[in-house]
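[step 3/7] fold_predict: job queued, chain A
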Amino acid sequence: MIEPRLASGVLISAIKRMVEAEGDFATVLKKGDAVSGAILLIGQVRGANPQLYERYPSFDGQTSWQMVDLKEPGEIAVQEYWQKRCARDPDLWVFELDVASAARLDGLLAMFI
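[step 4/7] structure written:
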């Protein structure tokens, strides 16, 4: 049985408010389907080394953030990847976080699974 889950738009809004409340930066680069759109998150620490994360469902009905492995690291590769994904999936959300530390980013990902 599939467990009910929080709508994508509500989840994005909650993450954004929590990030901004701590003085960090969050922005939606592309809005997707408000209810069931997949979420692609770009996580950065102090504006450097962007990493892509996608929220995947598991067999037990839970979700987890998985890092997307790109052939080349860097901002250009990240941008090209998410733009190609958006072309294939118009319901996709693209969300960017820029936080003060890697521990903060890890904590946010763990909190919003």
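[step 5/7] annotate
The longest strand covers residues 48-57.
The radius of gyration is 14 Å.
exit 0
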